[in-house]
Amino acid sequence: MKGGRLQGEDTLWSGMMSLLRLSTIQDRLAGHQPRILPVDRRHAAVAMVFREEKGSPQLLFIRRAQRAGDPWSGDIAFPGGRLDSEQEHPRKAAERETLEELGLDLDRAEYFGRLDDLCGATLPVLVSCFAYHLPDTHPLQLNHEVAAAFWFDLVGLLDPQRHHLACFHDNGRRITHPAVDLLGREQAVLWGITYRLVRSFYQLFDIPFGSEPVLVDARP
Q1: DSSP letter string, 32-84
Q2: Do residues 62 and 77 touch, judged by C-beta distance below 8 A?
Q3: Which of 25, 78, 121, 176 lies in disulfide reach of 46, CB 3.0 to 4.6 Å?
Q4: How many helices (H) and strands (E) does the chain have?
C-alpha cells in the first residue's frame, strides 16, 4: 500500500498514467473522427490546451470573471467563446478567443485534433472543442473576462475524492450535477459542458470519468 492506496489501485493508476502521455493523446485525437453537429443554435468554440510538466501532462483551465447576465459567470471553463460570424471557422474562433482572453497564441502550439461537438443541457448553445499541445509556456495575460487561469494534472482529475454531486440553480430550479473540486472547498468546481468535454476526452482512452450528467430537479 502506497500513499493510502491498495496495490491494485496503484496498478490501475500506473496504467492510466501510461495511457495519458502526450504521444498517446496525440495519436488518439489524430485518429478520432469527431461528431460534428449541425449549427442550429448559438455556436461557441473552446481550446483544450495541454502541456507537460515534470513528465506529467496537464490541462489548462480558466475561471471566468463574475459578470451580470452571463450564465457562465464565475465558472471553470476552457478558454474560448462565441464565433464572430457564421463564416468564421470554430477552430479559428477558439484560437482567437484564447489569444484575447489569455494572450496565448496557439499558432505556436501543436494542433492535436477535435473532440465531439456538444450541445448545452439547459442553454441553446453548441460547443466545438479543439485540442493543442503547448511545447513551452509563458506567463499568461488575462483580460477582463478571466478571473484566473491554472494548469491541472490529467491523472489528478481522476482522483475520486475530488468527484461529487453538486447543487446549482438554473431558472429558479435547483439541479444536481456531477462536479470535480479543482480549487479547494467552497471554490468554483468543474461542471456543466466543460465537465462533459473532459469526460468525452477520457472516453477516448476508455478511462471512466465521474458519471453521465443528468439534470435532476432537486426541489422538494
Answers
A1: ---------SEEEEEEEEEEEETTEEEEEEEEEPP-TT-TTTT-EE-SEEE-S
A2: yes
A3: 78
A4: 4, 12
Domain assignment present for 12: no
Specify the higher pLDDT residue, 126 or 11: 126
Q: What is the DSSP pairing of strand 42-53 with strand 163-170?
A: unpaired
Domain membership flag for residue 78: yes
Largest CA distance in the chain: 56
- 195 domain-assigned: yes
Count of domains forming the chain: 1
* Domain-embedded: residue 220: no
Q: Which one, of 207, 198, 167, 179, lies nearest residue 60 by Cα?
A: 198
166-199 in b/e form (b: 16+ CB < 10 A) is: eebeeeeeebbbbbbbbeeeeebbbbbbbbbbbb
CB-CB contact of 181 with 173 (8 Å) = no
More confident residue, 213 or 208: 208
